[in-house]
Write a structure and sequence with these properties.
14 helices, 2 strands, single chain
C-alpha cells in the first residue's frame, strides 16, 4: 500500500472546521434576526418610560424612568374599556371560528355529498377575496340590522373564516376512520362523534387556530374604524390612533398604549406556545 493510498483513508482535518464555521454562521444570522425582531419591542417599552423631554433621546435606557405616559393614557382615553372590548371581541371571534370551522370541516370530510369538492373549492377561493371587496356590503348589512357601534357588529362578520375551515379540514382528514366507524356502530350520531371523540383529539390544531384567530381579530383595524362611533364601544387599535393628531404625534403615550395593547398577546402566546409550535410543525405552517 502506497503513502498516497494511506492519505486517502485519513480523516480530513478541514471537515470539523467547515462544520464549526457553518454552525457559527447560522447562529450569527439567528442572533442578528433575533435582535432585529426584539429591538423594536425593547425600544417601544423604553420610549414609554421616558419623560417628555427625553422622548427622542438615543440612550438605551432613560435617565429618569417614569410611568407618566401610562397614567396619561389611562386617564385621557378609556384604554381599559378598549382592552376589555378587544379581548371580548377577539375571544368571541376565535371561539366562533373554531366552532364553525369544526362543523364545516367535519361535514366536508365525513359526509358523502355530491358537490363536496365544489364546496371545498369555493371556500378556498373565498379566502382569496380581499376584505376591501366585502367591507361595504358588510357595512350596509350591519347598518340595516342595527349593529353599528356595537361589539356584536365587530364579531358577526368574522364568525366564520375560510382559513379556519381549511386548517381543520386537513387536520380532520388525518383522523383514523376506524375510530369513527366504531363509534357509529355503538350508536353515536354525528354531533356526539364530533364533540366527544374528534374534538378532544384535535387539541394542537384547535390551539393553533385559536391563537391565530385571536391575534388576527386583535390586530383588526379597518372594520372597527368603519363600524365604531364612540371610544367606549371601540377597540384598542382605534385607541392607538387617538395619539396621532394633525398637530403631531404623542410618541410617549403612543408607545405606552402600544405596550399595553401588546401585553395580552404576549401572555397568550406564552401560555399556548407549545401547542402552537407543535401544530405548526404537523400542519406545515411556517
Amino acid at each position: 500500500m502506497t503513502t498516497d493510498a494511506l492519505d486517502d483513508h485519513r480523516p480530513s482535518r478541514s471537515a470539523p472546521t467547515r462544520g464549526f464555521g457553518r454552525k457559527f454562521g447560522v447562529h450569527a444570522v439567528m442572533v442578528v434576526l433575533s435582535f432585529v425582531s426584539i429591538f423594536p419591542i425593547y425600544w417601544m417599552i423604553v420610549t414609554s418610560l421616558r419623560p417628555e423631554n427625553e422622548t427622542f433621546s438615543t440612550a438605551l435606557w432613560p435617565s429618569h424612568p417614569t410611568f407618566d405616559n401610562y397614567l396619561f393614557v389611562l386617564t385621557r382615553v378609556p384604554m381599559l374599556q378598549m382592552l376589555f372590548n378587544t379581548t371580548l371581541v377577539s375571544a368571541a371571534t376565535a371561539l366562533l371560528q373554531v366552532v364553525t370551522g369544526m362543523f364545516a370541516a367535519y361535514a366536508l370530510v365525513r359526509w358523502r355529498m355530491r358537490l363536496s369538492s365544489v364546496v371545498h373549492g369555493l371556500i378556498a377561493l373565498s379566502w382569496l377575496v380581499p376584505f376591501q371587496v366585502t367591507m361595504i356590503p358588510n357595512y350596509v348589512l350591519a347598518s340595516r340590522i342595527g349593529l353599528l357601534d356595537t361589539l356584536t357588529g365587530l364579531v358577526v362578520p368574522n364568525a366564520a373564516h375560510a382559513f379556519a375551515i381549511l386548517l381543520l379540514y386537513h387536520a380532520m382528514r388525518a383522523f383514523p376512520t376506524e375510530v369513527l366507524e366504531a363509534a357509529r356502530m355503538d350508536g353515536a350520531r354525528s354531533f356526539r362523534i364530533l364533540w366527544q371523540i374528534v374534538t378532544p383529539n384535535m387539541g394542537a390544531p384547535i390551539a393553533s387556530l385559536s391563537i391565530i384567530a385571536f391575534i388576527s381579530a386583535w390586530n383588526e383595524y379597518f372594520w372597527p374604524l368603519l363600524l365604531s362611533r364612540k371610544p367606549e364601544n371601540s377597540v384598542v387599535q382605534i385607541g392607538l390612533q387617538m395619539f396621532m393628531t394633525q398637530e403631531g404625534n404623542l410618541w410617549g403615550p403612543l408607545m405606552a398604549a402600544a405596550a399595553l395593547a401588546s401585553l395580552p398577546i404576549l401572555l397568550i402566546y406564552l401560555v399556548l406556545q407549545r401547542h402552537v409550535i407543535e401544530s405548526f410543525m404537523k400542519s406545515g405552517i411556517r
